Amino acid sequence: MLHRGPDEEGFLVEDSRVPGLALGMRRLSIIDLPGGHQPVWNETHDAAVVFNGELYNYRELRERLVLAGHHFQTKSDTEILVHGWEEWGEDLLEELRGMFAFALLDLRKHFATVPLVFLARDPLGIKPLYYSQTEEGFAFASELRALLASGCVPRNLSSDALTSYLLFGSVSEPLTLVANVFSLPPGHRLLLHVPDRRRTPRARPWWDPRRSAAARDPRRPRNFTTAVAPVRALLEDAVRAHLIADVPVGLFLSSGLDSSAIAAFAARAQKGIQSFTLSFPDTPYDEAPLARRVAQATGTKHTEIPLQGPDMLARLDEAVSALDQPTMDGVNTYFVSWAARQVGLKVALSGLGGDELFAGYSTFTDTPKLVHLELLSRFLPAVFRRVSTPLICSLLGKQGSPDAMHKASDAWRMPSALPHPYFFTRLLFPPSELQRLTEPRFRKSTVAADGVTLEPTWLAWLERIADQSREFEPVAAISWLELRTYMASTLLRDTDSVSMARSLEVRVPLLDTPLVEFMCALPDEARVRPETPKALLRAALEGLLPPEILQQKKRTFTLPWENWMRTTLRPRLEASFANLAPALAVHLHSAGVAMVWDNFLHARTTWSRPWSLYVLNEWCRRHLA
């Protein structure tokens, strides 16, 4: 994991008090450059921590802990964790504001009769944490590939995870593409009794916005007008907090509203902050002119990094290799991270989270249609649903996209295939088409009363998130589904792996916990205005950005895959499909893969389907037996 932390490394190996224990870390030094070495111990040398992430409220927590009698040896945010653990135990998690994955070792006899290792992950899943229980013991890491490199984990493909990948273009929590390796889900914790190495620990949730202080506040806004001011204050505070660092911090700047919002608040908090845009000169994908206007309006020190098609294609293998798990989305973010390092940044702010919190995706308009469709279909016999499918799909207005037509068709004909209509809007391959590619696995699992999944499966995770969403109002429910699935399993996972591949830390102020909890507590009446996309965010930015920027339509950052895959990339993809990786070939039907490629060449499907299969195949070729 040298790429994740090129600055130094730290180990705790075979402590005489805990035979058989080893902790290690690589450091990307951001705060307390000379003093933040890990593992960090407490004063009595019986509690230690290894940590990946940033705590944005560490100064406030340090003051409280000093007043409580704790003595600090460093100025780092990492040391907060050992003293906070001593003071609050597992309730420490409720005090943290940041992105984190950490492992705490506790040797104190008065706390437990045996040594403990406590693992935890931040509420939104910004930082990853993977683990595996084998006959030899328990192992965890920040990357799946680190567990594979350890030799502790067999390089076997998970057929359950493959179904999830084909459905959604990434593997859903809590699975990984490797059998018996799991992701600790966002907002979950795990307690390991060190001597009991064969007992499988269970991940337990610790964060729930429905039970937050914001959700319990009787004074929370009830309408749109009263929500604007507190949202603006929370945005300003989130960006200010995310600028804390002992190295230069910059920001991604596209033409979109989310990154423009970050730029507006960051420039007010820190004069001359560096912003940058990845430009594609003389192409319709180039956002540089609009980003330049945002930079001028906010006063950032702006740089444009041009990337020509040949340069991008030359780095494509490098970008695919950066993926810790296969995904149809991550390569775009790799090039943005590459550009950040080109301008010398070690930390960059991103606008991720804006579409999820402020209803920017088409899923917010498509899901209600599918909800009504599902309710209607349940009252009709299957034969009627089958013959009426073309009419229903045309009424949904999706004639222009064959993939969207297939999604709508499945939502109408087989509404029970997935736990919520929302999931049909995020499909890559609909359930009805999976049999052409693999033997699909829709395996449920048992969930205990306290929310603990006894046998992790992707379907159980989706069912649980769907059940939780029904406690929210309709728009807030879609926001929750987005945050817990597409955001966690695709956007955040991809962003972490490809940015850290370039030794870059990406921070996401729009996923600041106080802001997320506030937004989750808002009634729909206070969140949206039907005629204005992302109305609450636009209103909160009034006076900070020019009207032409606030009023522009949503643009999606993408690369010209459609053209490349028909031209320059075509030989590469066809060679890959003709030679499936051995680990994948036993699960994936080659005839089905050939059909997907043929459908793309004849414009019967979009580029995302064959591209997702290419990335999957190349990842398996590199990493699985």
Corresponding CATH superfamily of one domain: HUPs
What separation lies between the terminal Cα atoms?
Answer: 21 Å
* Topology-level CATH name of one domain: Rossmann fold
The strand count comes to 16
Shape: globular
Q: Structural class, from secondary structure content?
A: alpha/beta
Write a short abstract of this structure.
With about 625 residues, the chain is α/β, with parallel strands linked by helices. The protein contains 30 helices and 16 strands.
Structure description:
By secondary structure, the chain is of the alpha/beta class. Among the domains are: 2-129 and 184-206, Aminohydrolase, N-terminal nucleophile (Ntn) domain (Glutamine Phosphoribosylpyrophosphate, subunit 1, domain 1, 4-Layer Sandwich), CATH 3.60.20; 211-351 and 484-550, Rossmann fold (3-Layer(aba) Sandwich), CATH 3.40.50.620; 561-623, no CATH class. The protein is built from 30 helices and 16 strands. A 6-stranded antiparallel beta sheet has the order 3-4-5-6-10-11, covered by helices on one side. A 5-stranded parallel beta sheet has the order 14-13-12-15-16, with helices on both faces. A 3-stranded antiparallel beta sheet has the order 8-7-9, with helices on one face. Strand 12 (249-252), helix 8 and strand 13 form a beta-alpha-beta unit. The chain is globular and about 70 Å long. The mean pLDDT is 90.
